[in-house]
Amino acid sequence: GRIVGTVFSMVSIAVMTRSLGTTLGVEEGVRSYGIYAAVLAYVTIVSVLADGGLYLFFTRESARDPERETSLLEVTWRARSLLMFLGVVGGIVVSILLPYPRLAVIGILIASAGMVCQLGSQLLLGVFQRRVRLTTPAVAEVLGRAAQLVLIVMAARAGGGVLAFLGAFTAGTAVTATLSAAPAGSV
Length: 187
What we know:
- This protein is mainly alpha-helical.
- The chain is 88% helix and 0% strand.
- It contains seven helices and no strands.
- It has helices spanning 2-24, 26-51, 54-64, 69-97, 102-130, 135-157, 162-184.
- α3 (54-64) runs antiparallel to α4, α3 runs parallel beside α5 and α5 runs parallel beside α7.
- The protein is flat.
């Protein structure tokens, strides 16, 4: 699943960079892709801070005491939700205060929703890992990356820019999170 997802991501980047270069010209296309990459890097840093080690905590503790898995998931989910909220709000406030172009700040708003989806599906991965049932998260990741690729191709054909591509990223992570969440309770 990880290999197929990575291939989809590589194709997505190729489509995006070609589209930005063709639509905006090489120089502006490179600048726009730089904004895209900077937004994702920024959101990734905020995501690491918002994680707070909760995924590892949940996975370790639920493996030690499987009977407490549900209560651990609830507590960890609450803590993750609080950290995500603080991370997203803090990240957005800091991005407004930094000398980022308006396009980057709007991109951070869009990509922050994708970060929330990623953090949610990552926590659910602990449920699947403990039970050694990784088919569902693998399929969810592949389908999420496929959805992202389809949306990137559609945005590229429509002449969309950085915000459309960040919207595709967020939609893809929402697909992954939704597909991971549906069966997690029944695993």
